[in-house]
Recover the amino acids of this structure.
C-alpha cells in the first residue's frame, strides 16, 4: 500500500549547522506535500505546503529562509533547517497527498503521513 | 511488518455514540495517539494512551489494551462538526510514528 518515508529518522546536530530531512512517497505520486512540526502531546502544527515544481506556501510565523522546502519531484520533498538552534529541536512530520487506488477500486485522493524525524539541536 | 488497521469509513447519527476501533502490530510500543482531521486542515491532537484503560476527556474517550494491540476512540453526543477523519498512530520502539489510514466519520442529522 501507499507509504511515506522520512530520512533520517533522528538527527542530533550542533547549533548553527544545517539539517536536511527527506520525505518520499512510495508507490504513488504526491502532488502536494505538507510539513508539520509536533511538540509532545500536541497537535501537528502545519509549517508549509508544497506542490511539485512550485514554491512552498508557508504558514504565518514560519520563517521561509530558515525552513527551506524543495519539492523537486512527485515523490520527493526536502525540508532543510538552516542554522539550527536548540529551540528548533522537535519532531518533524511530512505528509503526502496524491491519488491512490485501493485494489479494484477507483482512484481516490488520499493523504498519508510519514514516521517523523526527531531533531535535537545541541 | 508494522501495521495499523482502522475502518475506512463510518456513518453515525447526530446525538448518538460511535466507537472507532484501531488495531496495531508494531515493533515495540511507546504510546498511541488519536487525531481528528477536518478536510484541508492539520490533524488536531485528541488523546494519548500509553497505559491500559480508558481515558475520558469530555465527549471523547480513548481506550487502550496493550496485550490485545487494540484501541478505540469513543465519541458521545455526536455533533455535525464531528464529521472528520480520525487518525490512529502508534509510537514504535524507535519513537517513530506508525499511522493508520484514517477513518472518515460521516454524521447524519
Amino acid at each position: 500500500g501507499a507509504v511515506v518515508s522520512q530520512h533520517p529518522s533522528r538527527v542530533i546536530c550542533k547549533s548553527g549547522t544545517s539539517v536536511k530531512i527527506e520525505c518520499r512517497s512510495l508507490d504513488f505520486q504526491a502532488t502536494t506535500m505538507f510539513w508539520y512540526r509536533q511538540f509532545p502531546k500536541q497537535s501537528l502544527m502545519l509549517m508549509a505546503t508544497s506542490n511539485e515544481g512550485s514554491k512552498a506556501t508557508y504558514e504565518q510565523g514560519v520563517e521561509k529562509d530558515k525552513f527551506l522546502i524543495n519539492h523537486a519531484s512527485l515523490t520527493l520533498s526536502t525540508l532543510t533547517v538552516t542554522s539550527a538552534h536548540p529551540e528548533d529541536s522537535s519532531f518533524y512530520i511530512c505528509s503526502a497527498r496524491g491519488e491512490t487506488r485501493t485494489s479494484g477500486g477507483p482512484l481516490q485522493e488520499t493523504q498519508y503521513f510519514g514516521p517523523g524525524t526527531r531533531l535535537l539541536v545541541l | 511488518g508494522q501495521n495499523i488497521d482502522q475502518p475506512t469509513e463510518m456513518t453515525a447519527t447526530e446525538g448518538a455514540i460511535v466507537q472507532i476501533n484501531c488495531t496495531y502490530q508494531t515493533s515495540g510500543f511507546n504510546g498511541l495517539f488519536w487525531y481528528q482531521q477536518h478536510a484541508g486542515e492539520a490533524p488536531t491532537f485528541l488523546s494519548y494512551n500509553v497505559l491500559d484503560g480508558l481515558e475520558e476527556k469530555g465527549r471523547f474517550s480513548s481506550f487502550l489494551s496493550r496485550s490485545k494491540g487494540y484501541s478505540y476512540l469513543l465519541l458521545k453526543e455526536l455533533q455535525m462538526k464531528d464529521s472528520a477523519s480520525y487518525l490512529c498512530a502508534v509510537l514504535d520502539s524507535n519513537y517513530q510514528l506508525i499511522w493508520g489510514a484514517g477513518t472518515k466519520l460521516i454524521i447524519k442529522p
User: Anything to note?
Assistant: The radius of gyration of chain A is 14 Å. Chain A has a mean pLDDT of 89. Chain A touches chain B at residues 1, 9-10, 34, 36, 41-46, 93, 110-116, 118 (CB under 8 Å). Residues 99 and 109 of chain A are 4 Å apart (CA to CA).
